Amino acid sequence: MKILVVEDEKPLLELYKKILVSNDYEVETAEDGAVALEKAEEFKPDFIFLDVLLPTLMGDDIIKILRAKPAFKKTPIVVLTGTKLNMEECFKLGATGYMNKAGVTTQKILDCVRMYSMLT
């Protein structure tokens, strides 16, 4: 499975990548919104972890743009957040779910991928 992780906090980005790669997922990363859209188009991920607050383009804008493209209509997009702020808007735009960044563990990340992947 191919996973795109979009997160501007470098330590968190590296943590997600390390966990996913060590569990045999193919991973691409992006640290800002514009790069995230480019990577999504090139990489064609099966799953996207998406931070809400990003440089250049916010997570809710990315959701709106991706959901308008047929290739991403059903791709699980799980929003990474420290708060539930903007979550209602993200769900209206097509977010599949969310994961709180606080207390992230290997098991939470892997469970999230498994759970939301089964919904498509």
Briefly characterize the structure.
With 120 residues, the protein is α/β, with parallel strands linked by helices. It has helices at residues 10-22, 33-43, 59-67, 87-93, 106-117; strands spanning 2-6, 26-30, 47-51, 77-81, 97-100. It is 43% helix and 20% strand.
Verbal overview:
This protein is an alpha/beta fold and 120 residues long. The protein has one domain (2-117): Response regulator (Rossmann fold). 43% of the residues lie in helices and 20% in strands. The protein has five helices and five strands. The protein has helices at 10-22, 33-43, 59-67, 87-93, 106-117; strands at 2-6, 26-30, 47-51, 77-81, 97-100. A five-stranded parallel sheet has the order 2-1-3-4-5, with helices on both faces. Strand 3, helix 3 (59-67) and strand 4 (77-81) form a beta-alpha-beta unit. Helix 2 (33-43) packs parallel to helix 3. The radius of gyration is 13 Å and the shape is globular. The two termini are 13 Å apart.
